[in-house]
Fold these 2 entries.
Entry 1:
Amino acid sequence: MLTLRTAGLRRKSTARVGLAIAGGGPIGGMYELGALRALDVAIEGLDLTRMHVYVGVSSGAFLAAGLANRMTPTEMLRVFITGDAEDAKFRPEIFLRPAFHEYLKRASGLPRILFHWWRDLLRNPGDFSVSEMLSRFGGLVPTGLFDNDAIERFLRDAFTRHGRTNDFRELRRKLFVVAVDLDNGETVRFGGPGWDDVPISRAVQASSALPGLYPPVEIRERQFVDGALRRTLHASVALDQDIDLLIGLNPLVPFDASRARAEGLPHPESLVTGGLPVVLSQTFRTLLQSRMQVGMAKYMHEYRHADQIVLEPNADDAEMFFTNVFSYSSRQRVCEHAYLATLADLRSRRAQLAPVLARHGLRLRDEILDDERSLVNDLDPHARRHSNTSTRLKRALDDVDALIATRQRRRVRAAAH
């Protein structure tokens, strides 16, 4: 589903494009990767590695950090989907390692808690209650099931190869990774003033520390958790950078069973038949999307000069709703699904999109939209591998080409006026 909101206050576009990518677990990230690949091939003039600003939340922070580090969607597909990347080797199991250190840390507190509980029980036996017992022993429950230190090491290794960087200050484009301070609920923008010295890998680890699944991440003696706790997309972070066009990606939307039924699509009789997991998933998705919609509508008044394009799954998309968000085995299928769905959205809305994109020097490639395509089959199977030195040289040459192309476009626009 593509939502388009055009600027209420028109000004001459400087072609500053910002990208905001929400969270959604591993499968949400794979959906966004497929959508990014579709945007990459279908919109001429859009270079996803040269956006004016990137904002990433939770799993979206992985992709935003990769793009800001000049990793193309194709390169990230090779890392996460096909597995034939020349450097970063993705192994799903590293994201699902039990947090043994957290388990031991909590278990070590058992003797002390038992001692105080028995002491207080003997002194005041009438004060015993189940709720009081649960309160005392709640501190023994681990704050996360899985260890996210391996995630940080994976990213740190990936961002220190082939001319990339793990330092916000060394990036050529602005990158903000959003997390929430657990102790006060404050939103922190890693990459912003006062927080740009935190390694990118550490910031992404903090932003994706979903409570219950991953332990909070300690940075400067503060505990950080998933950035989606405060907002879904944090699009205002990008809009604050005076951009002309915002592109947003949100992979989690509530499922509309009645719509699926009306269109003859596969659907359950009622979501309640799926039990508590499905009910909680629908509730969580509804909260996330409604919160995002309220924010985006507000932004139309606060940032009247900026056009907004937001891409999400359709409300009747059973593929996205019923796929386990932690099912790594489904990542290629979901990525392919998102790729084709995004191309279909662009194709169906091309009449409305074309003039908006043209205002920012962009154009839809009709030859791509009207062609039968496949995500993986479109990748070059004979991609050349590069050393660190050749990668830096290639990037320098790409920068020269981009500079020449930008100046040519400016001349054309100047001549037209």
Note: Residues 51 and 317 are 29 Å apart (CA to CA).
Entry 2:
Amino acid sequence: MAFFDLLQTSSLVWIVSCTILGLMVGSFLNVVIHRLPKMMQREWESQCAELRGEAETALAPFNLAKPGSACPACGHPISALENIPVLSYLFLRGRCAQCAAPISIRYPLVETLTGLLSGFIAWHFGFGAAALYALLFTWALIALTFVDLDTHLLPDSISQPLLWIGLLVNLNATFTPLESALIGAVAGYLTLWSVYWLFKLATGKEGMGYGDFKLLAAIGAWFGWQMLPLVILLSSLVGAVVGIALIVFAKRGRNIPIPFGPYLAGGGLIAMFWGQKITQAYLGSF
């Protein structure tokens, strides 16, 4: 209880504690980002085999807990001391302790990003339920962002619970009244669903995936329909700039798809932190 009281009374302890917690959660998110797409692939293959009438093949367990983390190059099991967020990467100089194979910089970057955002949330919202909810929302967005960057997938196993949790969080109007959250969830989905079908009817091509609809619906459920125009505008603007830059400077082909989830996630975070102020300033200008 003494530490809990200290969290309530000392903003510094609260911020530092959330930052450290964020670093540890970031380490877990690295596992989610790496393994969840592979778990989905296994499930799809199993379903396809079942539809073909093939006998089920016994496979070694593969989930977020098993097998334990190991070096992909030599199979060296990662010990607890080698798995300390950020510090282990620095101590090992970005290489496996056994075979010296390089470790992706992605791991400490995800941990650092999660830690910094968690500390900022603690500072922005202060001690309380709103900060805890915001942490959960942010961690989910980080996982979705990097999975989408790697695979162009936004797993339902994250985005759908995120939507329902957003509605539950707003039963007491934590971020927005429940009525606004319900309308936001429906409007978020139908907005991108409409854009998808208009684009497909006009061009014969799919401009985005259904996962984007669900993510915007989740953002609407968390922060209300009033935030949707801001999220769509920001994500579309940044996505267009990045897409043009990739075509011009990286010589990326125009037909190569660009994941939209990370831009929606960025818009959702901006809406969470500053959405009300931005909206009020915009409306106030009129």
Note: The mean pLDDT is 90.
